[in-house]
Design brief:
Layout: H1 2-20, E1 23-28, H2 30-47, E2 50-55, H3 66-71, E3 78-82, H4 83-91, E4 101-106, E5 108-113, H5 124-133, E6 137-140, H6 143-156, H7 159-162, E7 166-169, H8 174-180, E8 185-189, H9 190-193, E9 199-204, E10 213-218, H10 226-236, H11 242-247
Parallel strand pairs: 1-2, 1-3, 6-7, 6-8
Antiparallel strand pairs: 3-10, 4-10, 5-8, 5-9
GO molecular function: molybdate ion binding
Keywords: Signal
Protein name: Substrate-binding domain-containing protein
Length: about 260
């Protein structure tokens, strides 16, 4: 009889736990996605919640972009995106201001197709020459690509030379296109380059012309599960998450 009561008590606790579990809807942009794909399941296993993940850029005109999704009235419990794009959503009243959590810093790197010679990009002059020598250059439609298009080429003094052969690649990973052979070289945040097969990672572009993108996360106004969402954000920013964060090509930020 005692064993029966113990079994019933365990079943009751399990049922209560399942009843309390939430399905969190998470919208995340590319730069933090590799880390999230590891950390998200770890959080779910520890907390009993499930995660529904929706991928989309932090900005831009694509309907998949996180701001455009929220503007259409799509609900989410958590948004993970470029910090300044998140700040815009906070100013618009779309994200709870004091829910903002700093996650990681992301730097821009360069890839070529696997098997092709790796160009020297160890200095600003070397990077400039590598881009001039490239048959074609691709960059993303998110934060890193906006910087490459609007600032990097100008700072290197090669904007006019690159205009005919440089292209912004929308929605899909730049490295995936490089793996197919065009463009010949690709520029994007390191954490978005490393997971893609068929390319060789050359390295980060030099610090004097580097652009560091801060990734952050927040809870949209009207989120169905704000308490569980806060627990997820605390976990993603926790000390125990940092080995995963740095292992995916990102840099930790102080908290």
């Amino acid at each position: 009889m005692k064993r029966l009561f113990t079994t019933l008590a365990a079943m009751t606790l399990a049922a209560c736990s399942l009843a309390q579990a939430a399905e969190l809807k998470v919208m995340t942009s590319g730069g933090f996605t590799a880390a999230y794909k590891v950390l998200g399941p770890q959080f779910a296993a520890q907390h009993g919640d499930t995660l529904q993940t929706i991928l989309g850029p932090s900005m831009g005109k694509a309907p998949e972009a996180i701001p455009n999704r929220l503007a259409r009235g799509e609900q989410a419990d958590v948004v993970i995106m470029v910090g300044y794009a998140l700040d815009d959503l906070i100013k618009q009243g779309k994200v709870v201001p004091d829910s903002r959590v700093e996650l990681a810093d992301s730097r821009i790197g360069l890839v070529v197709k696997a098997g092709e010679p790796k160009p020297d990009i160890s200095s600003v002059d070397a990077l400039k020459q590598a881009l001039l020598n490239a048959r074609s250059v691709g960059y993303s439609d998110s934060a890193s690509g906006v910087y490459v298009q609007d600032q990097l080429f100008k700072r290197l003094g090669i904007e006019a030379q690159l205009k005919p052969k440089a292209k912004m690649i929308e929605r899909i990973p730049v490295a995936g296109e490089v793996a197919k052979g065009e463009p010949q070289v690709g520029l994007q945040q390191v954490s978005e380059l490393l997971p893609i097969a068929g390319v060789s990672y050359v390295g980060k572009i030099p610090e004097p012309v580097q652009s560091v993108t801060r990734f952050a996360a927040g809870i949209p106004v009207g989120a169905p599960h704000p308490q569980e969402a806060k627990a997820l954000l605390d976990y993603l920013a926790s000390p125990q998450a940092q080995s995963v964060v740095t292992g995916t090509g990102l840099d930790s930020v102080p908290h």
